[in-house]
Amino acid sequence: MLKTVNRVLLGLLGLGLFALGGGVLLGGLDLQRRGDFGMPGWWPFRGPDDVVLGTEGRTRWRGEGWWWPTVIAVLVVLLALLLWWLLAQRRRRLDQVLVDSEDGTAARLNGRTLEDVIEEEAEALDGVSRAHVRLTGRRTAPTASVRLLLEPDADPAWTLGRLSQETLVHARDSAGLDGLPSKVRFREVRHRAQRTA
Predict the structure, then answer these.
(1) pLDDT values of the chain reduced to their tens digit, one per residue, 197 residues
(2) DSSP assignment of 29-53, as one string?
(3) pTM to 2 decimals?
(4) Where are the extended beta strands (E) located within the chain?
(5) Torsion-angle region of residue 97: left (phi > 0), alpha (psi -120 to 50) or beta?
(6) Which fold has domain 96-188?
(7) CA distances from 81 to 15, 17, 68, 70 (A)
(8) In sequence order, which residues have a C-beta less than 8 Å from that of residue 171 and are 6 or more positions away?
């Protein structure tokens, strides 16, 4: 849902900026006169000397009593929507994972505990210096985001194979989950170049 909202909002914002930029470009380069075509009567940019917002547009509603409360209310609503959108971008860490106990009730597994277990098992793999795991998604269908810090001599393909076929399978089976989709990112430990004489 959030991806769809992001795409729609970014698409509308891009379309609006494209239209505004195109309108300013048409007026600034005087393309209506050069191309011999007309623009609608409400179009604000007619030539290179036009401004985006003229004196009449800036002062038209100042004397009305409803103008400033309306401007402030619109800005407050816009700020609230932008803050909601910003906070919605953060993927929430799962506090609990629901485990099917096969007796009709669901047991609750602490999400941090499962993250810690995956981290410990991943750090036990050869070539892994440090691991960080974060569970996101729904309590019934979590997703694991795994970051591994690899030693310089580690083989990423081998490490990924062991992680996906052993560590994540153990976590999935122990939690009784149907699946545990995962994203894995590798980074290598920084080390100084060794000199030989």
Answers:
(1) 667 877 888 889 889 889 888 877 887 787 777 777 777 777 777 777 777 667 777 777 777 888 888 989 999 999 998 888 888 777 677 788 887 767 767 778 888 888 899 999 999 998 888 999 988 888 888 888 899 999 888 888 999 999 899 999 988 888 888 888 889 999 887 755 555 55
(2) TTHHHHHT----TT-S--STT--SS
(3) 0.53
(4) 96-100, 106-110, 128-137, 142-150, 182-188
(5) beta
(6) Alpha-Beta Plaits (3.30.70)
(7) 19, 19, 20, 16
(8) 114, 117, 118, 121, 144, 180
Per the CB < 8 A criterion, the answer to whether 133 and 168 are in contact is no
Other CB atoms within a 10 A radius of the CB of residue 47 amount to 13
The tokens for 6 are 């992001």
In Å, the largest CA–CA distance within the chain is 84
- Containing 161, the helix (H) or strand (E) segment is helix 156-162
Torsion sign across C-alpha atoms 136, 139, 141, 142: positive
Helix axes 67-89, 2-28, angle to 10 degrees: 130
The token pair at 196 is 């030989």
CA distances from 71 to 46, 54, 85 (A): 27, 18, 21
φ/ψ (deg, to 5) at 147:
-120, 125
